Amino acid sequence: MSAVTDPLAARFAAAGHALYLVGGPVRDALLGRETNDLDFTTDARPETILELISPLGATWTMGMEFGTVGVQVDGHRCEITTFRSDSYDATSRKPEVAFGDTIEGDLGRRDFTVNAMAVALPVDAAKPIVDPYGGLDDLIAKQLRTPITAEQSFDDDPLRMLRAARFAAQLGFDVVPEVVEAIRSMASRIEIVSAERIRDELTKLICSPDPRRGLELLVETGLIAYCLPEVGRLTETVDEHRRHKDVYAHTLTVLEQAMALEPDGPDLVLRMAALLHDIGKPKTKSIEPGGKVSFHHHEVVGASMTKQRMAALRYPKDVIDDVARLVELHLRFHGYSGGTWTDAAVRRYVRDAGPLLGRLHLLTRSDCTTRNARKARALAAAYDSLEQRIEELAAQEDLDRIRPDLDGNEIMAELGLAPGPLVGKAYQHLLALRMERGPMSREEALAALHEWAADQDIVTID
């Protein structure tokens, strides 16, 4: 890190300005966590900052009106901000920017004490850490507190309530009781925060090492109702087996089991699908004769709800589509029932999953949370069997590229049709046959096409 901090410190000191490494990078250094993005604060004004850092690398000034100027140094993204002492409008989380004069005042406007520590540069061995709010003690105690009262902090910036849950999930820290109570009493204040900001914090929370911890805080405080209300409602729904406290508890277990199967680190699509896979249950719950609880078609309802919620949070369309598709398909395996699917059914399973097949395997396996060891072994064996059949068929037929045995141009040429809906219907018919029967010879495909055309009263050209 000295390759970054030394040249910055030298330039600011030569110009008579203070420079501090501040916030998350200090916290992470003390925790032994790596970071590439470094934050600094200084008494220099933005124009002076830009002048001082320009010789060091590529700069950016996107946040200059808020006192922040950025520079790339030795592969690290560095942002330097003038001391701040902002005030906030109660109807907005955007501060009325005011520059401050002291490091202590700047640190007091930060979200949590563990993020309100600074290191003076060049490093002074006599006073290595500036910590006016007890952040080091809180770091050792693994707890999250606010430098000022939690009520004032969250009133200034309500997103900090969600950040508390995110940091709890990322760092494994506990949120102190007075902060929890402030979140509980002020949860509705998050409504003034943009959907994009909420989305970004949720994504970091869900992709953290311990999302359960953060989600439980959201549910405990009621904040979940303003960002993922469908998940909050799962706490009120007992599942059909009556072996879990509620569908919410099952959902958290599925999420953790999915995480344990991730091959390449945090997978937002898989984790969101695990979190949302049962959100259709409250809407579809019914009591059948004898008192049995059922949730017919909750996967279809849940897929629609997933699209609506993720769109409201401004997730990218491809992410929304993938998560919703996994939610829709997560029950499909249960029709496999002891390996009785035909080859056609296996082909449809693969085709419907498409590029999501690998994630669908992981989600389906994760959805088994039964405490009955015999049943769990049976489900695992059944899915092993299905995966084996998929591999065998894939080796024979290239399942990932299933297409009808005739393409659209061949259909039009054979039947003498112009482009239009009939060509699409013929294509879908041949695709269904391909799924049912497997590969056909060209002669078989042509015969099937003409048979279909005759049933449709289409006059073909000999």
Any key phrases for this structure?
9% strand, alpha+beta, elongated, 4 domains, Hydrophobic Seed Protein, Beta Polymerase, domain 2, 12 strands, Hypothetical protein af1432, two-stranded antiparallel sheet, 462 residues, 22 helices, six-stranded mixed sheet
List strands and helices in order, with pairings.
Elements: H1 2-14, E1 19-22, H2 24-31, E2 37-42, H3 46-53, E3 59-60, E4 68-73, E5 76-82, E6 87-88, E7 95-96, H4 103-108, E8 118-121, H5 135-141, E9 143-144, H6 150-156, H7 159-171, E10 174-175, H8 177-186, H9 195-206, H10 211-221, H11 229-232, H12 247-261, H13 268-276, H14 281-284, E11 286-287, E12 293-294, H15 298-312, H16 317-329, H17 343-353, H18 357-366, H19 373-397, H20 408-415, H21 421-437, H22 442-455
Parallel strand pairs: 2-5, 9-10
Antiparallel strand pairs: 1-2, 1-8, 3-4, 4-5, 6-7, 11-12
Helix pairs in contact: 6-8, 7-9, 7-10, 12-13, 12-18, 13-16, 13-18, 15-16, 17-19, 17-21
